[in-house]
Amino acid sequence: MGSRHYPLRVTRSAFGIRAQDLRTLARGTWWARRWIAALEAMRLGARFGRGRQYAVSGQVTDLVAEGAHVSASVVGSRPDPYRVTLDFTAAEGVEQARIAEAIRSQPMTLGRLLAGDLPVEVGELFRAEGLPLFPQADPLGRTPEGKPVWDVAMRCSCPDWSRPCKHMVAVLLLLGEEVARRPATLLALRDVDVEDLVPPDAPEEAATSAALPSECLGEASLPAAVLPNGGRGATALPGGALLVRRLGAVPFWRGTARCVESLEKMQSRAGAVAREAASGSSIDLRG
After folding, report:
1. Does 240 have pLDDT greater than 50?
2. For residue range 187-198, what is the model confidence (pLDDT) as tens digits?
3. Where is average pLDDT lowest: 60-74, 179-193, 207-221?
4. In 34-60, which positions are buried (b, 16+ CB within 10 angstroms) versus exposed (e)?
5. 88 forms bridges with which residues in the sheet?
6. φ, ψ of residue 93 in degrees (nearest 5)
7. How far is residue 85 from each of residues 68, 73, 146, 170, 175, measured CA to CA in Å?
8. How far are the Cα atoms of 188, 278, 287 from residue 114, in angstroms, in the given order?
9. What are the distances in angstroms from CA 193 to CA 113, 132, 172, 197?
């Protein structure tokens, strides 16, 4: 019996979105590790390594997330890029309203989400509505015809029958980097926008994004060493504790002054110290 010969396929070079050090992602925040663990639970085998190489080498040339729908182009061995789409199971109707109201009713949880943190309780809120917060390998249930209802509907124009294929894995890893930077992305993939949960009567300046770490310094700018372009063109932020004002009334507060006012004073002091540190002055934190 003669041996079969298969055509040699060579991945084309691309200059798309390059993933950072994925080992750092796996050692990062608990939600970043949980994302990687969710992918590993899909029993990807060698496809995980190939997808990782695609993500690191910039084979994903565009990636757009619109709510629960994610689309991307991935350069492979063929002249035309492969089209990848991921559709996450989204919260809808009553379940979406219950999740939103539960988060809105917990000022500290909402404040942490806006500040780039992810309280464990958020996952419990989704589970209470029968929805996972992270991708999962097991189906959510079955249709009346007996077909499994998967957590993420994945499609790729490549001929590989495996799901997820290496192209999808590359997209999922890049999504994981965004989740690591901004965990509110997890909620957005379930069609719950954290920014929409800010109470409508919040101060106007509270609409400013809390994703920027410099917001925590109040009036102070970050030191030039940690700003893009060495700090050129950076401007001081307006006064006031923009982030803490989003918290609203804190139920456990027992001080004589309002909680937000107390936090504003602390933030103002932190801003002054940051300015001194950025200017190279010695800092005395005693008293």
Report:
1. no
2. 999 999 998 888
3. 207-221
4. bbbebbeebebeebbebbbebbebbbb
5. 152
6. 55, -125
7. 10, 9, 24, 12, 12
8. 13, 26, 31
9. 11, 16, 20, 7
